[in-house]
């Protein structure tokens, strides 16, 4: 037990010393490496923003259809590829939801994982 505790303390000390060394090094805005680092960190954020905006646009297009219960549908978007999950109340609505999603600008492909679930009390 003492060995594990000692190893943990040594590991924590290494992490702290490494982070202190990184903080102590001067950074220059004119170096090409720092410019590359800044662009690398901003690219995923803009990709996530684009995915989030596309997801919202697809969901908004589905919500406009009053006869489709969009509350049971989830939309996942990644780089233009959209995945539809959830349930609809009628099998014919599945094709309509897929066509609606394909009609949204920015959608490159649609993966359909929708199923049919009748509302409670209906046969």
Provide keyphrases for this structure.
single chain; 123 residues; alpha+beta; Histidine-containing Protein, Chain: A; three-stranded mixed beta sheet; 3 helices; 3 strands; elongated; signal; BON domain-containing protein; Lipoprotein_DolP
What does this structure look like?
With 123 residues, this protein is of the alpha+beta class. It has a domain at 43-123: 2-Layer Sandwich (Histidine-containing Protein, Chain: A), CATH 3.30.1340.30. The chain has helices spanning 2-24, 32-63, 91-102; strands spanning 73-78, 81-88, 109-116. The protein has a three-stranded mixed sheet with strand order 1-2-3. β2, α3 and β3 (109-116) form a beta-alpha-beta unit. The longest helix is centred in the middle third of the chain and has 32 residues, at 32-63. Residues 27-49 are annotated as: Disordered. It comes from Paraburkholderia bengalensis. Residues 1-24 form the signal peptide.
